[in-house]
Amino acid sequence: MTQRKPLNSVLIKPAGADCNMTCDYCFYLDKGELYPKRKVHRMSVQVLEELVRQVIQNGERMVSFNWQGGEPTLMGLDFYKQALAFEEQYGVPGQAVGNGFQTNGILINKEWCEFLKEYSFLVGLSLDGPQHVHDRYRQDRAGRPTWERVMKAAELMGRYHVAYNILAVVNDYSAEFAKETYSFLTQHAFPTGHQEKFLQFIPIVETDPATGEAASFSVSGEAFGKFLCEIFDCWLADFRDGWPTVSVRFFDTIFHSYLGLEAPECTSMSECGCYVVVEHSGDVYSCDFFVEPRWKLGNLMQSNLVELLNSPRQHEFGRMKATLPEPCRNCRWLEFCRGGCTKDRVRDPADNGLCHFCKSYKMFLEYADEHFRRLAEKWRRSQ
Prior knowledge:
By secondary structure, the chain is of the alpha/beta class. Helix content is 37%, strand content 14%.
């Protein structure tokens, strides 16, 4: 019998795939083609209210709304003020409600910062690294570079004490500059003296529709493995009194596994399907990497999110990750990577069903294993 999954987190695309940037490697821009009747995609107040009501009233003691895109700031501040009003209206005594917000930073200004700070939004700011790295693939719709505007957003959020993390995509170009990128992000992407620095490095592999092969901007398994090892050396160099001073999400996830704890990141879980994605229309999908007709679960205006999360289709989606190729089943590192993200097994035909970053994870885990084992033992003694 399949265990029933709790509704504690939803990923929301209030502006659909609409964005004020046209990053070369973006996997989501073409999702607007699913909704051809409108050129502009915006979530209505009716859909927003039903979304909030269902999550609040059917969720666990702690629930989180994760506002992403496209670009969520295109909805304007009034939309999120209305979302908070609905959260308060439908709030359940003793329940904790969190809001996450992922942005490219282009529209972030004083008013946004005041709002994000006042209501304790946790922001993920997309910044790939120093200027030459970031501007390689991240342009606005006029083809202009965006690094200076994103850095201004980081400076503003730091000034207003907004809690934010840095999300950096690792592509074919940026993989060559691991140490420079780490140094830049830790020294210049946060306010001077800022103690809590959180970094997430996201390797990119997408399919080129013209060739059916991995797109040219994709990072190879070997290049990303080398990148991880170099970042790991930088991370270790920043230890103080034997403990890390910088949080790198992938390292945090791996460390959980060394402690025998469940990985906090879905890519390292044994199955997918622990959350759902809500599009601007109210359509619900299995995952933001699989917003496509096959994995449409329903629409929240006609269905219950908890039931969609526990539907046969969503269970089928989750089992795809658990269905591992033979090399994975016999790999010594399986407990740490769990075969990688499902989408990374299908983007490059040359991978033959293996995770595109299989070589990366093997390279990194062989390099870092001893360090993690020592750190895990130290942590256990400290407890």
